[in-house]
Each structure stands twice: as structure tokens, then as C-alpha cells.
Amino acid sequence: MAQYAVLVYSPAPADPMDLTPDYVALLERYGDQVTELGGQILTGFALQPSTTATAIRGDLVTDGPFIEAKEVVAGFFILEAPDLDVALKIAKLNPATIDGGVEVRPLFQPPAE
Q1: Which residues form the YCII-related domain (predicted)?
Q2: What is the pTM of this model?
């Protein structure tokens, strides 16, 4: 089955300790919704707030995320789904789409030699 990285974007600083009980309840339901659509979350992580990020560009090291934006990467997970259409249906149900968004990207598979 195809695998996708789903990047979760939330309003900065995206502190997981600030999640509301309603949002947490939606997250708790999300796993079942993924299964109902034929997908499976293989692994996932929430990130600490964007204020804890350190960006590196060449020799320059700066505090803060790589790109300053209203929304920042709050976490990610690896999704296994039959195809991109199913992966997108699953991603649309993620509660982050309420006040932020998600990005779905197929995982790179090197060409067979």
C-alpha cells in the first residue's frame, strides 16, 4: 500500500499543550476514521511549539522556525492508504484542517535498479 507523509499545520506557535478538549476529542476519533476509510497511521509525532525551533541555513544558525508564517508545522504522521484519493479523504478529516491545514506528500520510492 502507498505511504504518505501528512504534515499538520496549526496557527503559530502550535503548542500541543494548548489543545482544547474539543480538539483532543476529534483527535481521539481520527484513528477510527482513518481505519474506516481503509488507511492506517504507521507513526506520528506532535512537535514542540515553533518557538523552540532552530533554523540552519549554511553557517547561519537562528532561533525560530525556518520560515516565519502564521501557521507552522505542528506535527506529522506517516499514513498508509490504498491510493492518493483515499489519503486525501483521510487528511481532510484531520481536525487540524479546522483552523490550520494539512499537506499530503507521497513518500519517495527510489526507482528499481
Answers
A1: 59-108
A2: 0.91
DSSP assignment letter at 14:
-
Which residue, among 99, 111, 101, has the nearest Cα to 6 in the 3D structure? 101
Which three cell numbers, joined as nine digits, stand for 42?
Answer: 504507521
Other Cβ atoms less than 10 A from the Cβ of 90: the count is 25
Query: Is the Cα torsion angle 78, 76, 8, 30 positive or negative in sign?
Result: positive
Burial class (CB in 10 A: 0-12, 13-18, 19+), 102: buried
C-alpha grid cell, residue 62: 537562528
Contact 95, 36 (CB under 8 A): no
Q: Where are the alpha helices (DSSP H) in the chain?
A: 21-36, 84-92
The per-residue pLDDT for range 14-66, each reduced to its tens digit, is 999 999 999 999 999 999 999 999 999 999 999 999 999 999 999 999 999 99
Asked if residue 6 lies in contact with residue 46, where contact means CB atoms within 8 angstroms, the answer is no
45, 75 Cβ separation under 8 angstroms? yes
